Every structure is written in C-alpha cells, then in structure tokens.
Amino acid sequence: EYEGERNSDGQRHGFGKARLPNGDTYEGEYECGLRSGNGTYRFKNGALYTGNYLQNQKHGKGVFFYPDGSKYAGDWVHDQKQGYGEYLYANGDTYTGEWANNKRHGQGTYVYKDTGSKYIGCWVNGIQDGPAELIHLNHRFKGRFLNGKPLGRGKFIFDIGCEQHGEYIQPVQEKVEDEDEEEPPLPLEPIWKASEITKLTTWSPYDEELLAP
User: Fold this and answer.
1) I want to staple 100 with a disulfide (CB 3.0 to 4.6 A). Which of 19, 105, 129, 161 is the partner?
2) Would you give the DSSP letter of residue 205?
3) Domain 1-79, what architecture?
C-alpha cells in the first residue's frame, strides 16, 4: 500500500507513506521509487529508524531505536553504522566515538554505568585495542590494550598523588597431559608486575611510539 507523490513514470517520488508486505511502515521522501532523503521507518518488531536515506539504505545522519531499549544516534554509510556516533546500550552503558562497519572502530569513550568506570582510547573491530586510559573512581590506568586486555608497559595513577609503574604480562599456558580435554583452555588474564612507585609523571603510552625507531 502506498499513498503519496509519484513522478511521470508512476514511480514513488516526493513525499509518501507506505506499508510493506512484512508489516513495516515508512513515511518520508522517495526518489525514483526508492527511499531517498528524510524519512521514518517503523519495524513490526518495535524498532524505529528516523533519518536520512539514499537508495533504500540508511545513509547520512540518523537515529535507530532498538526493541530492547538501546539506541544509536550518528552517521550511517550504506546501511552500516560508520563515522561518528553515540550508542546507548540496554544496560545503561554508553559509547561515544568512531564506528566502521557497524563496529566500534577508531577513537572512542565507553562508560560503564554500573561502576562509573570509563575507557578512553582506541578500538579495532569492536574490541579495545591500542593506547588507552581506563578511569575508575579514585585511580586510573594508562597503557596499551590488546584484544580487550591491558598488555605491556603502563602505570596506575592514584588520586592521592602517586603512580605505580609496571607492565601487564601474559602468563604462559601450562600444557595439561590429558587427552580427554575437548575444549580449548580459557585464555589467562594478564598479570600486573609493578616496578616502581613515583610522584606524578607525564608518561603516556603514546611516548613509546615516538621513541620507537
């Protein structure tokens, strides 16, 4: 069902309202039969998108409300979250930053609602990876992350005015002589090895990149 403007070829063109065979509805602009321009698309499952379209795809700026209560507001490219945007998760966590191919990718800040902790730094394909700062209520950690875990040199900065320098080391998995083990062992958590406690300094994970040959 469609009611709205059409062009001389009879294609949907201009402003119109449509009900799709699957029960979804669209109200907005069309161009030569395709959703293009500004519009609001309501999904039968309760989701809703309002924003820009280009040739039937979400493209430009738009807000997507998910059935679970989560919400994304930001840039879209060919139906994918891409560019800069803010995501509010169903559990109250938020991410504000760069996206590529529907994943957190680039620089961004993730805030954990339950603890108030904040991760500010690099992301690769949705995973914390690269130089970053993890800020807690009375201390923070500055260092590098790999596959979502801290690894290598870093420091803890305490609000009382001192720092603990050291590094996160990946423990070696001990081999178990047991043929029955079907499941691969869980990866071990990196271990923090402190080296010294100092007054506040300006070291950051980016400094090593500058020093590297």
Assistant:
1) 105
2) H
3) Single Sheet (2.20)
Which is nearest to 54 in space by CA: 85, 30, 73?
30
| Separation CA 161–CA 158 (nearest Å) | 6
Which residues, 6+ apart, have CB-to-CB distance to 19 below 8 Å?
1, 2, 25
Instruction: Judge whether 1-79 and 91-170 match in fold.
Output: yes
> Could you state, in order of their start, the residue ranges of all structural domains in the chain?
1-79, 91-170
Q: What percent of the chain has pLDDT over 70?
A: 89
Closest CA to 169 of 147, 186, 152, 145: 152
- What per-residue confidence (pLDDT) applies to 205? 67
Q: Give the pLDDT band of residue 170 (cuts 50, 70, 90).
A: confident
pLDDT at 87: 98
User: Within a 10 A sphere around the Cβ of 55, how many other Cβ atoms?
Assistant: 12
What's the confidence (pLDDT) of residue 44?
96
Residue 34 host element (H or E): strand 34-42
Looking at the whole model, is its pTM more than 0.90? no
